[in-house]
Amino acid sequence: MIEESIHISDLFRKGVSINASFLFFLMVSITIIYFDNQKDALRTVRSFISTLIHPIELIASLPYQIKDSIADLLISHQNLSADNEKLIEELLLIRTRLQKYEIIESENRRLRNLLKSTFRLENKILLAELVAVQLDSFQKKIVINKGEKDLAYEGQPVVDSGGIMGQIIQTNSFSSTVLLITDPNHALPVQINRNGLRAVAVGSGESNKLILENLPNPLITNSDLPNSAHIIVGDLVVSSGLGRRFPRDFPVGEVEEIKQDLSKSSSKIIVRPFAQFENIREVLMVWPNQYKD
Known about the structure:
The protein has about 290 residues and is α+β, with helices and mostly antiparallel strands. It has helices at about 1-15, 20-40, 45-120; strands spanning about 125-135, 140-145, 155-160, 165-170, 175-180, 185-190, 200-205, 210-215, 235-240, 250-260, 265-275, 280-290. The chain folds into two domains: about 1-40, no CATH class; about 120-293, Rod shape-determining protein MreC, domain 1 (Thrombin, subunit H), CATH 2.40.10.340.
């Protein structure tokens, strides 16, 4: 046996009869395939070999699985980043559009309120926009974008959707300066709408307060006697039209507080104006002696 194995190895080593060696192994392979197909003789061997090499196959495929997982993770991260950036851009765009819509809606509300106030006026009117504000402790003035070219004149009344705001005190070609009724130097002839009691509303220097002067003395302020009382809290104050500068019966404000001064037997009447001085955007210029077409 040893001699034969040496003899065969010597033949292969010396490269003798390669064709014969090929035929030999071919016949062996054919024989093994035949017996395996006919009698399934190598099933156990194949199963054993498959069991042995399965861990090796798993280890060999592990780098490729790791590479595929990392590639999928990178792609997912890139996709998520791109989607996130896109969503952020869309959100910013939506917010910008929403702010524009809110601004437009706010402007529409103000214009609708101004339009409602025009129904109280039979006079000629003109819409003007605010271009400057001077609301310090000593002066309450605004500048509007209408002037002499728009037939603005000194003393012309200006109103908003709530009530009387003031009057023009200075004009030029393209703008006008308006003195507000809350300025300490402004005086407005008014009357109590309930009973026609006349007074003068003087600016207090504060945007939410007017003071009534030239009232009768003694002044009846008993709210239990509304029919005979001169003035009570909640009374509507309107323009009287005296002096023919401001339109008659246009809202000015509401009596908010009555301060009694017992030592002087007098009362201080505080009126809250209806005009929105803190939110001025547009105003109406009025020509009291002219009428709309």
